[in-house]
């Protein structure tokens, strides 16, 4: 089943992906079904009337957590003269609920057999992703007088799907049925309730991540209204910007995920369908993007990541003391250690990014208490950078997986197998060190020095960190500079040889501040030059590199989140025009995705395509793509916390028009920001 004809609703890490009829017919390799806590709880959910499948007339994507399908019996024809119509309304929250309404438009009464086939393979999301369904436990179905219980048991690991109906139904092991008599113009309806249960040791129900209880739809609606009301208001003459902003706010609400240990507090899950869980890197970068708009997410994210910080050496999980986790999973394969995500620590950027987020959050919020609360975790993270991440002994952060069976080979944000290469296209040996991570380490030390001096009462430690940061910056600008290209290498191999490919990673170096000022202009020119910039955005890998592919996952596609941090970095070094150019391209692309930027899209030149080319398996919605328009708004308006106040220095793209961002929260209370774009003189001349 292709992405285009699937309907998705979600709430946190619980989501439903179905056909446009509402039916679910999953195969082991398709991410269709009802999923929660990394398990598929429904893999078959097919509605028939008198034995006939239903044909979709239309559907309403009502909210992120609900959808409505309008159907008629039989196959599609050019002329539909149906005597029956069927409406399926579904909501996902603390449970999955579906209301089925059938209307008789005939002049005569009708007798109907209504059937819902139901089943579950209880596939782990990793098994679906890897297209391997190898269940080692027992799948069972128990028919009770008023419900159907589907289950899976493997030792103490139990997952169950319990289905009941408001109208009397006949249950069997494969679903349930109704016999209905309808008079002319009469309608019949039933509400079907699907409860998901994760049973742990001692019979405890571990329904992690299900935030809303009671009357789900009303609670979810109220929660969404409250979420939007708390966020700043954006008004814009640019016809699509305000709509894109609202779409981002709604998707960010949809992706909020509440682990059991947080007692209802939320952090962003990374993306649907594969990454609806806690990530270190993704959650931190999303929090940085949305700080001016949803600052409370940062506090939650920092606390949960701190509570799960590495404490020991564990090769299976690539864990070290002080290391911040990469990914946390709750499914069967993690429970039985068939993969290491319980949690898994195979990321080299989450740890410095943790320190960066804490400092940036304090600058916005003034939450000194959290900075003091997490002092030891910050010190442990900085110790990890120096003592455990420097695998070669030359002062850089390196990575090499110790779990060679199921660990990640590339532990930077470009984590696909072929994302790091020499200029000739060959792949370097391990360990590897990528450029942007050194920038993060530099930034983390500079920011930690501020926290040590101002909040931890340790000026000597602050001085030490500043010395180390300055030395790192000097070394980096010597070792990573590609002389014949005038940019920074993507990576170094363990012998110190450069992977001299030109990549988008150099934009993250501007964001971190590690770039020498006399080289920054060269970097800016590359970022908006024709090899990297397409008109829609900056490619992950420059055109002309051996591994360049405009639809290669990390080798030529455009990642919106990547571009948002590049624009922020350009702004940091004073390249306001270049930052505005990138912001304009990405926001233009958002129009073609109805305001919902995908994980990635094709890196084709803008003059070659009238619209951005979709990447076939991109996650959508995805947290750091959802955060992209918000960081671009911050960048265009020049919003920066400065000595307890909010500085506003707008530089908008040509033709953007007037933008207002009202009620921006922070230590200053709530303030407004206004900006007006410059006129397009070429258009006026025409």
TrEMBL record:
Domain of life: Bacteria
GO BP annotations listed: carbohydrate metabolic process
InterPro entries to which the protein is assigned, alphabetical: 6-hairpin_glycosidase_sf (IPR008928), 6hp_glycosidase-like_sf (IPR012341), GDE_N_bis (IPR032856), MGH1-like_GH (IPR054491)
Mannosylglycerate hydrolase MGH1-like glycoside hydrolase domain segment(s): 320-592
Coiled-coil segments on the chain, per record: none
Domain Putative glycogen debranching enzyme N-terminal: 10-192
Protein's name in the database: Glycogen debranching enzyme (Alpha-1,6-glucosidase)
Species annotation: Micromonospora coxensis
